[in-house]
């Protein structure tokens, strides 16, 4: 399933200020409860809660083609992590790439995301959450 993007700047700011944070080698993960989760769940045809995803890659990291490659790798790492683990739903997830992400593979990103989600207690025990 395609992820829904965070499109409002104030949600990024709230995630940075109030969200739970984990710093890994290649990225920083911010997680915050989504206040619009119920409304998005009702609009979803499957009637399930969903996470909204935000990706941030600074211009300091590289040129546009490098930043786009990093974003693709972040999305793929997140997709694999969701496939392997049962993540909680109804949250804002902001992934901020660090400078070392330009040399990272999707496997490195997946490892960092798994570590981050375990440390933030974001992996759910329930089968159908």
Can you describe this structure in just a few lines?
The protein has 4 helices and 5 strands.
Layout: helices, strands, pairs:
Elements: E1 4-5, H1 9-18, E2 20-23, E3 27-33, H2 37-43, E4 52-56, H3 64-84, E5 91-97, H4 106-119
Helix pairs in contact: 3-4
Mind describing the biggest β-sheet?
Answer: 5 strands, mixed
Give the ordered list of helices and strands.
EHEEHEHEH
Count of strand segments: 5
Strand content: 15-25%
- In whole angstroms, the N-to-C terminal distance is 16 Å
Low-confidence stretches: none
Strand order of the largest sheet: 1-4-5-3-2
Structural Rg: 14 Å
The number of distinct helices, counting runs of at least 4 residues, comes to: 4
Globular, elongated, flat, extended or rod-shaped: what is the shape? globular
The residue fraction in helices comes out at: 40-55%
Mean pLDDT: 91
Given the helix and strand composition, which structural class is it? alpha/beta
Assembly classification: single chain
Walk me through this protein's architecture:
With 129 residues, this protein is of the alpha/beta class. The protein has a five-stranded mixed β-sheet with strand order 1-4-5-3-2, sandwiched between helices. Strand 4 (52-56), helix 3 (64-84) and strand 5 form a beta-alpha-beta unit. It has helices at 9-18, 37-43, 64-84, 106-119; strands at 4-5, 20-23, 27-33, 52-56, 91-97. The chain is built from four helices and five strands, in the order E-H-E-E-H-E-H-E-H.
């Amino acid at each position: 399933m395609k992820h829904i993007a965070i499109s409002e700047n104030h949600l990024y700011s709230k995630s940075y200020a109030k969200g739970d944070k984990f710093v890994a080698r290649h990225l920083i993960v911010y997680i915050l409860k989504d206040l619009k989760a119920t409304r998005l769940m009702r609009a979803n045809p499957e009637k399930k809660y969903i996470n909204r995803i935000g990706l941030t890659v600074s211009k300091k990291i590289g040129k546009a083609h490098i930043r786009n490659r990093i974003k693709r790798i972040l999305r793929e790492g997140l997709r694999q992590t969701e496939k392997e683990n049962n993540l909680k739903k109804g949250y804002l997830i902001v992934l901020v790439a660090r400078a070392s992400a330009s040399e990272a593979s999707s496997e490195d990103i997946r490892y960092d995301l798994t570590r981050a989600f375990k440390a933030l207690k974001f992996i759910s025990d329930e089968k159908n959450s």
